[in-house]
Specification:
Elements lengths: L1 E5 L4 H13 L4 E5 L9 H13 L6 E6 L3 H7 L7 E3 L3 H9 L5 E5 L5 H12 L7 H17 L2
Parallel strand pairs: 1-2, 1-3, 3-5, 4-5
Helix pairs in contact: 1-5, 2-3, 4-5
């Protein structure tokens, strides 16, 4: 399952992307915001997506959107099993999946046109982890760090 969430700064881009996901018959669950409310807080939506993905980090994926992308990315990466990557162009999104096996994609709504964000999301969803030994080793080190810090 794909979980998607955004604050007020990412709301319009989230609506654009959920329409694209629907049109492409890609199953997702929208955790909100359900309307553009300027006083909402990005951590609330990031927590919801991160908890959903963390419940099964191999099977689930997440999409987070805020103005810069920084805030939701920082919050998501506080959760064990989450590998959130801030992507601002297709090549970064591809590398985040192929090398780091990212399970959450963070998009900066202030810096992307809707069409660019759609292209980034599309390649991210269709790029697989490359399973190279060096990348497996590095992910193993991340898991060790998580085990040490999430006791």
């Amino acid at each position: 399952m794909i979980y998607i969430g955004a604050d007020h700064k990412g709301f319009k881009l989230k609506e654009y992307l959920t329409k694209w996901l629907t049109e492409n018959k890609i199953q997702f669950f929208d955790v909100g915001a359900m309307e553009e409310v300027e006083l909402d807080d990005y951590p609330d939506f990031s927590v919801m997506v991160a908890k959903c993905v963390a419940s099964s980090p191999v099977e689930h994926k997440g999409i987070l959107i805020c103005g810069s992308g920084h805030g939701v990315d920082m919050v998501a990466n506080k959760y064990k099993g989450i590998r959130s990557a801030l992507a601002f162009k297709k090549e970064v999104a591809i590398q985040s999946r192929a090398h780091e096996n990212a399970n959450v994609l963070t998009l900066p709504a202030d810096w992307l046109k809707p069409e660019e964000a759609k292209e980034i999301l599309d390649v991210w969803l269709h790029t697989n982890f490359d399973n190279a030994e060096r990348n497996q080793r590095r992910l193993g080190k991340i898991r060790t760090i998580e085990e040490e810090n999430f006791k």
